[in-house]
């Protein structure tokens, strides 16, 4: 039952945060920061397994490796943006968090361009226009 | 093994803190002793008119530890006529200031007093002793205040910094 | 398995000790020293956090093929 570890870590972090918040707000925030990092590091192990599964399925279905890789990269970018915006939001800076998310979305779009490009090519191949 | 190292670090830093706090306490105590010494000196010079060597011997008998040796040595060296009284006095004070945690300004007051010792008549001596006593009173009040203020602080800081370093190295 | 949770308690300890030193110094009227100690404590904790955040980013990079 690893969920118990996570829940207890969260509770302990909250208690320590409440203890230090009045005296040292900066260090209290860094404690929250560390807890967030620990959570995400914990999640990484499982995400790795899921990604391995996706790759395996893709291989079996004979999908081009590039597409699978792009999708995984998109997931990675969304994950990173999530971490960044979560931490910034914890510090109470919602405006910067929304900017991080915006940049993340843009990067996802940029990564998707090659796939989109090949889609257009395929469509153009089906309807010869000349 | 780790626990022992941590305890040693904390103990070392605590000892440093206590030593600093002790310095403040000793300064206060030594200034008080010097005031006593000057009062006895005044009584001996003004009322009994004892020679200076015997005064020093008497002082070394009456006063507790750190002052005892100082006056005993002073009496001995003056008796041996190893030079001017002021020279011996300031030389011994320099040695004394190293072990007594007195500040240079305190030692300076006492040296000034030594300069006048044996140069004037009884009335002048009494005035000089009174002057030095008021100076020392002021210094003693200052030392007392500092002792109350920084004595506790340096002890707490010693222990806390020990724990801090131990935590850093954990 | 959750990773190294010791760092959390270490940072908490540093925070509490720094807060105590801050209080002691402030009581004795050494305001500027108290501020200085707080800053140093913050920087030290920040160094710890820096290590663990670089760990996380390295792992993300390797898992999601985000190299380069």
UniProtKB/TrEMBL annotation, chain A:
The chain crosses the membrane at residues 26-44, 106-127. The keyword Acetylation does not apply. Coiled coil: none annotated. InterPro entries: Spore_III_AC/AD, Spore_III_AD. It comes from the Bacteria. Keywords: Membrane, Transmembrane, Transmembrane helix. This is Stage III sporulation protein AD. It comes from Gracilibacillus halotolerans.
From TrEMBL, chain B:
It comes from the Bacteria. InterPro entries: Spore_III_AB. It holds the Pfam family Spore_III_AB. This is Stage III sporulation protein AB. It comes from Gracilibacillus halotolerans. The lineage of its organism: Bacteria, Bacillati, Bacillota, Bacilli, Bacillales.
Automatic annotation (TrEMBL), chain C:
It holds the Pfam family SpoIIIAC. The chain crosses the membrane at residues 7-25, 37-57. It comes from the Bacteria. Keywords: Membrane, Transmembrane, Transmembrane helix. InterPro entries: Spore_III_AC, Spore_III_AC/AD. This is Stage III sporulation protein AC. It comes from Gracilibacillus halotolerans. The lineage of its organism: Bacteria, Bacillati, Bacillota, Bacilli, Bacillales.
């Amino acid at each position: 039952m690893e969920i118990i570890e996570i829940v207890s870590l969260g509770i302990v972090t909250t208690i320590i945060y409440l203890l230090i918040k009045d005296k040292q707000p900066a260090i209290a925030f860094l404690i929250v920061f560390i807890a967030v990092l620990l959570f995400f590091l914990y999640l990484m192990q499982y995400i790795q397994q899921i990604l391995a599964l996706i790759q395996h399925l893709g291989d079996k279905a004979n999908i081009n490796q590039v597409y699978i890789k792009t999708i995984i990269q998109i997931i990675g970018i969304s994950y990173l943006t999530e971490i960044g915006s979560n931490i910034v939001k914890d510090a109470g800076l919602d405006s910067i968090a929304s900017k991080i998310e915006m940049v993340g979305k843009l990067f996802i779009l940029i990564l998707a361009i090659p796939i989109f490009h090949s889609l257009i090519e395929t469509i153009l191949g089906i309807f010869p226009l000349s | 093994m780790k626990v022992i190292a941590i305890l040693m670090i904390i103990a070392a830093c605590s000892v440093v803190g206590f030593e600093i706090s002790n310095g403040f306490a000793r300064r206060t105590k030594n200034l008080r002793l010097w005031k006593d010494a000057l009062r006895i000196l005044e009584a001996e010079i003004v009322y009994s008119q004892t020679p200076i060597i015997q005064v020093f011997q008497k002082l070394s008998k009456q006063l507790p530890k750190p002052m005892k040796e100082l006056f005993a040595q002073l009496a001995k060296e003056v008796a041996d006529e190893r030079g001017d009284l002021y020279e011996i006095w300031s030389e011994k004070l320099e040695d004394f200031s190293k072990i007594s945690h007195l500040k240079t300004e305190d030692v300076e007051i006492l040296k000034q007093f030594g300069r006048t010792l044996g140069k004037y008549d009884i009335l002048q001596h009494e005035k000089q002793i009174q002057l030095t006593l008021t100076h020392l009173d002021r210094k003693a009040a200052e030392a007392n205040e500092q002792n109350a203020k920084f004595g506790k602080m340096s002890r707490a800081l010693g222990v806390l910094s020990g724990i801090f370093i131990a935590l850093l190295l954990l | 398995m959750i990773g190294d949770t010791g760092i959390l308690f270490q940072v908490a300890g540093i925070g509490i000790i720094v807060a105590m030193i801050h209080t002691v110094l402030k009581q004795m009227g050494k305001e500027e020293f108290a501020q200085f100690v707080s800053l140093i404590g913050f920087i030290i904790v920040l160094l710890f956090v820096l290590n663990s955040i670089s760990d996380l980013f390295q792992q993300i990079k390797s898992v999601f093929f985000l190299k380069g």
